[in-house]
Amino acid sequence: MSVNYDELAESYRRYRTPDARIASSIWAHLESAERVLNVGAGTGAYEPDNCEVVAVEPSEQMTVFRRTSKSKLVRASAENLPFDDGAFDASMALLTIHHWSDIRRGLKEMLRVTTGKIVVFTWVGYGNDFWLEDYLAALRGFDLKLFPDLREMEEMLGAITVEPVEIPHDCTDGFMCAYWRRPRAYLDAAARKAISTFSRVGAIEEGLRNLEDDLDSGEWDRKYGHLLAKASMDLGYRLVVRDGAIVRPGAAASDNPPDRVR
Ligand SMILES: C[S@@+](CC[C@H](N)C(=O)[O-])C[C@H]1O[C@@H](n2cnc3c(N)ncnc32)[C@H](O)[C@@H]1O
User: Residues enclosing ligand 1, CB less than 6 A?
Assistant: First the structure.
């Protein structure tokens, strides 16, 4: 079942505020780039503002709720990018590939249009520490079916580096694991609406009632209170980076900085 992002767009704008710490990790890879492509851009979270950005997004409503008007917006999909070969110094695809109808084709398109780095913010599984699965059994393994594993990512992108992205306890970007230390947030229907998994995972009402009961009775604290001492957690989020040397069209090879920091 695909997600209708036109229906989720307003909640995305409200609850998916880019997190400054995650932004720094992403932007560290884009420092040399002057022309950046953002595929599956949504409302434009994490788009750098010190270079030219082209945002590709298929959902009209997501574009209506964009955070920035600086980027050039193109209504298109990852699988058919309407750009010339090597048109971008770098590209990024953030928490989006699991929605694409053909991930292999979309990444191949990104490789075609990008000469430098390709940065993919993705997810490889919660590990054993995401307590919400204890309440919502339907979550178990659900998203794992949608995201490629790292071996598949390497097969599709070529040589990659992989950076774990720890999720801060006060993460401002309300994706699935953002509220790992703020359990009551999962009881908020509006917050859940900004997490696409909840729109397709099936029945969750009983699990949410159990969570509320446990929070009210103190049982949640007895079971998971040890997590409250942690500042951040690794819950499976990863930056997958395909390295590449920027080659600007029309420039002599010597004019093309391999890794110029601005
Ligand atoms: C979870 S949102 C992420 C948005 C943004 N990258 C962010 O990090 O906030 C996923 C986005 O992928 C878009 N999307 C879905 N299918 C796509 C496709 N085939 N090609 C490009 N984007 C797609 C959706 O419309 C949605 O805006």
Answer: 5, 16, 39-42, 45-46, 57-59, 62, 77-79, 94-96, 99-101, 196
> For a substitution probing ligand 1, which of 99, 108, 122, 198 has the most ligand atoms within 8 Å of its CB?
99
**pTM of the complete model:** 0.93
Alpha-carbon gap, residue 193 to 196, rounded angstroms: 7
Whether residue 104 contacts residue 156, with contact meaning beta carbons closer than 8 Å, is answered with: yes
pLDDT in tens, 138-149: 898 888 999 999
Instruction: Extract the tokens encoding 41.
Output: 């851009």
User: Could you say which residues of the chain have pLDDT below 70?
Assistant: 1, 249-262
Encode pLDDT of 173-208 as tens digits.
999 999 999 999 999 999 999 999 998 888 899 999
Q: Where are the beta strands (DSSP E) in the chain?
A: 35-39, 52-56, 72-74, 90-94, 118-123, 160-164, 167-168, 232-233, 237-242
- Quickly count: other Cβ atoms within 10 Å of residue 95's Cβ: 21
Q: Are 123 and 238 in contact (CB under 8 A)?
A: yes
